[in-house]
Description:
Elements lengths: L2 E8 L15 E3 L4 E6 L5 H13 L7 H4 L22 E7 L5 E7 L12 H7 L2 E4 H5 L10 E2 L1 H8 L22 H12 L17 H36 L4 E4 L8 E2 L12 E2 L4 E6 L10 E2 L8 H19 L8 E5 L7 H13 L5 E6 L2 H13 L5 E11 L2 E8 L3 H10 L3 H19 L2 H4 L9 H14 L4 H9 L15 H18 L3 E7 L4 E7 L6 E8 L3 E5 L6 E2 L4 E7 L2 E2 L17 H10 L9 H4 L1 E2 L14
Parallel strand pairs: 3-14, 3-15, 6-13, 13-14
Antiparallel strand pairs: 1-2, 1-4, 4-5, 7-11, 8-11, 9-10, 11-12, 15-16, 17-20, 18-19, 18-24, 19-22, 20-21, 22-23
Helix pairs in contact: 6-7, 7-8, 11-12, 11-16, 12-14, 12-16, 14-15, 15-16
GO biological process, one term: DNA synthesis involved in DNA repair
Organism: Plebeiibacterium marinum
InterPro entries: AAA_GajA/Old/RecF-like (IPR041685), P-loop_NTPase (IPR027417)
Amino acid sequence: MQRIKSITLRNFKFFYGTEAEYPKNKIDLEKDNLLLYGENGSGKSTIYWALYTFLQSCLKTGNHQIKKYFSDDETESLKNRYATNGSESGIIIDFISSDGTITQKVISNRPNGINTKGGTLVRKTLNASDFLNYKYLSKLYDFRNSEPINLFPLFVKDLLMFIDFEEEYPLLNGELSGKSYASDWWDYILTVHEDLPRNKSMKHTISESSEEYKMYKEVLLPKFVDLLKNYLLKITEATNNYLTKEFNESFKISFNTDKIVCDFNKPTGKRAKDGKLHKPKIFLTAELLDDKLDISKRDIPNPHTFLNEAKLTAIALSIRFAMLDERGTFADACSLLVLDDLLVSLDMSHRNIVLDIILRKANRHQLLIMTHDRFFFQMAQNKIKHYKQNNWKFIEMYSHKNNEIPLPLIYDSESYLGKAIRYLDLNEYEIAGNFLRKEAENFLKEILPNRYKLNDEGKLKALGNLLSEAVVFSESNGLDKSLFERLNSHREFVLNPSSHDSYDVPKFYSELSDCINTLTELRKIEITQNILKKGTKLEFEVKCVNHGDNYKYNLVIQDDSHLIKEPGKTEVLTKGNINFKIFKEGVELPPKDKNIGDWHNENNSIINKYNYCYNKSDKSGEESFWDGVSFTETSEKLITVKPFN
């Protein structure tokens, strides 16, 4: 499979100049996925539209339709406004195959500067890819309450190009065209329409009595409708699976295929006809999946009048994901999923769901995710880390000026630790120390549960207190205490900004290097935050080895618990307070009888408590804590939420 190796923009939209003048105009992906943060006005969306324009170029019938985007005087030109007349403007994509072969494709204003229509690479990449931004999502809301949702205009503009009918459209002479995509069918229908009789004052080349006219009205139009219906029926089940299983919605949608028709030149009287092409309408409706409702009240003919924005967004995304899954990929082309500020309007729960869906597609598609939301950028980075996907580039974009010309400022987004390493290499010791302080604070916020990192007012403790708490926490939970003690030892010299005013340079360099090494080792620890949240209800059962009585334990977690795994060691579930009830043969034991063994010993974790009970039992239950304990409300085993083995 092909992947994008690099994207080069020359005087295109916000990108001024060429890569020779401004090396950052060439974005090296090296086959990786891209997560890009860009402040508003930084040129972030230029990359989105560059890829879209580039792939769409293979559909243009003539090179003039492509060159107009790079012209000096065309109204549709996308050439940078500060570029001089006659200067080069264009987009260059280097593709790289699995065997390392590089193929360069170009669209530009130079003579012979367009090669995207040659071969099948660009067209197949377009057909296997998808582009999504917030504007697409909003189109599902942009209907008056009094009108139904008709998706056909949206399909024409954004979706038909991705739909392969797998059947070539017939020309009016009965021969096959060699083109099978829905957009090809519809373009041909519109082209032929120009030559059909529409009214007496307009010239036409096809008479109403001809075989060509009959072919158009009785074969081409009905066949297009049949194929469109079949396609919509094909993706309906997948769309509803996304809605109900991924988004956990309690409704399903329908495209009302029985109402899709397309006709031309309808009669308006005994002899008169209207001469119009009556385009198909794809009406979107919904049905509530609630058995408590009467059947007559489950239908939602106009979903936008009943469902909120989040649910309409779920519909829009489910349709596109179903379409993307249906069309698959090509072994000799690239498959892109390009997202620009797609999730900014979603609430946190929906963001999490969509991110999970998107990241699971990384095995089939090269992902390019762009956002101006810093929090979402950091959230996505954490998700990527959770999924252990290493093939990602993290880039940040800002706007700046050079000789009063606005330019994008692009650099690789590093962790605070990465920036500290870079500035240490540049001998910028004070800056490196400040980034190490930020890295230490970030790490401690991640690994420490609330009971250690928050004060009585619920606010984050100062870094000095966090460092001390981390040593206590590590010892209490059986982690490598020495690493946390080493970090704490850097408190006064490296992690205290007031010490940066006067320092012995060789000593400071050594201290910075040691602190970097300590944090590098600490960052090898895998952390799953809040795997058991406060209020979580758990239960397990054991049978007494001596007299065969059944004991059931009902537990309520009182402190959020993290799951932590040091390299080469067994995972640790952090300790916290627990409320519990014990039932013997279904009868709750009174408090005086619940002091069983070391159950109340605070030096034991919940895992140790389970192991104690299991070891005292007849061993008929699950030996593993993760398999033996269940969530009370769902009966699912704890193993279902365990992220690593």
